[in-house]
Fold this sequence. Notes:
By secondary structure, the chain is mostly helical. The protein is 65% helix and 0% strand. It has six helices and no strands. It has helices spanning 5-9, 13-41, 54-57, 62-69, 87-113, 116-134. The N and C termini lie far apart (49 Å).
Amino acid sequence: MGVTDTDAQRVSEEQLRYARILNIGMRCGLALLIAGIVAYVTNWIPAHVAHARMPELWTLSASEYLRATGLPRGWGWVQMLDGGDMLPLLGIAILSGISCVCVAAILPIYLARRDAIYAVIALLEIAVLVLAASGVLTTGH
């Protein structure tokens, strides 16, 4: 079942923009994730937490793990991207955040059309995603 010319004509400008950005972000995020894992596993980029320590640390809760390794909470990992164990997190962050970028990219289309309902929905979605990623609403572990 292929895509016909009629189907292609029904694809809106915002759908195409969203899909293009999502495709680029997905490929970049996946490439960084894979490269980061390879760099970590091969020890091409030394890890902040040695491979030999991992079996003892796997049984710990997240809070205990952070305490035992001295790793920061929240977005502190961004300052530690020089370590092979932190680099894969960049790919994960891109993969999980690309939808926010896609929505932000289609917002100007809604504004240019004066499509207030969709513009407000897009703004609210961006606000919710940014608030969720900020960690402001987290509780103690």
